[in-house]
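Cytochrome P450 YjiB
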Amino acid sequence: PLAVFRQMRQQDPVHFDPRMHGWAVFRYDDAQYVLSHPQLFSSEAILPGQPHLPSFLGMDDPRHRKLRNIVSQVFTPRMIEQLTPQITAVVHQLLDQVAPQGHMDVIRDFAYPLPITIIAGLLGVPAEDQDTFRSWSDSLTAANGTNDTPEARATNAQSFQDYFLQKLSERRRQPQQDLMSRLINAEVDGEKLSDEELLEFCRLLLIAGYETTANLLGNAFVCFDQYPEVAEKLRQHPEFMPGAVEEILRCFPSVAGDTRVALEDTTLGGKQIQKHQVVSVVATSANYDESQFPDPERFDIHRDPNRHLTFGYGVHFCLGAPLARLEARIGLTIALRRLQNIQRDPGQPIEPVQSPFIIGVRNFPITFT
Ligand code: HEM
């Protein structure tokens, strides 16, 4: 849709879409404006009939700030950095499993298992419970092509809740050196998180951190297939990987946009927005805005600055960005080092993810030596 978005940026950058009962925002500056004025554009006021976003992702300040501050005390870039050995070990394990065969489905065998194993580890799920945890997570997030009935989904959500409430009480009795124990004890202005808030945060990690990262990893392989010279360059120069990850995030944003609701009548790009109308920031378009990114359709791993909006902007900026970046940098560097002559298996058609919110593919079979 790049050509359509280009046209929208020029001709109707703040566009009313009757099917959405709201506005789509295509230009970078307007998108940034919406995301940096949460007092006008709310994350909390949701439409009737839509599921509430979990935890503080779906809240406005001051509650959002309070909960985010507590979590961000322990979910710090430094703490994430310490996951390097675990991430490296999981990547090697996953590749060990497929290496003898010489082929894999990137999505099934690599992109999904890596982030969910890391999230499970963060939440302190022991190895013997990991398979169960994954099946609940797939059901809860409808990830990995799971097509559960609403009843099955409700049962899985309940099991997830019971499991974590039990874990929380275990951690209260016997604190450990893990994220959960630290979250239980973290406080701001004498206030701690309640059990319900802790549980909401577990759900948030899954919903915000699982499919998003999986699709980033999948999209990277789509990119390597499309630009084999880039893959080759990264093999020779792994130090360029951080820039490559940012460019993959810009060009194939696994989160396609962010939704807000206007709290007041206001104007944006010369249009009258009415109170209660939905305003959707289209990251997929803003990331290609020529006023921000020279020659935007060129895939350039050396692009600097590269201020894409794929992790959002402003007070809700993705708290998991350091983790997503670290998983992608480590995972892709090791994959390129270990897998040579990567070829897409032409016999199997690639299916895109069927969601307006996610850019990604549902399968990506490759062969390698
Ligand atoms: C928020 C994208 C990975 C945790 C967000 C937002 C975006 C985003 C766009 C802001 C949404 C809004 O403003 O409405 C992504 C992408 C990821 C990724 C593209 C991977 C490529 C992760 C991971 C975690 C995580 C791995 C944690 C394990 C969060 C949390 C928030 C958030 C906690 C809420 C922040 C707040 O509301 O203050 N993410 N995310 N994300 N993300 Fe991520």
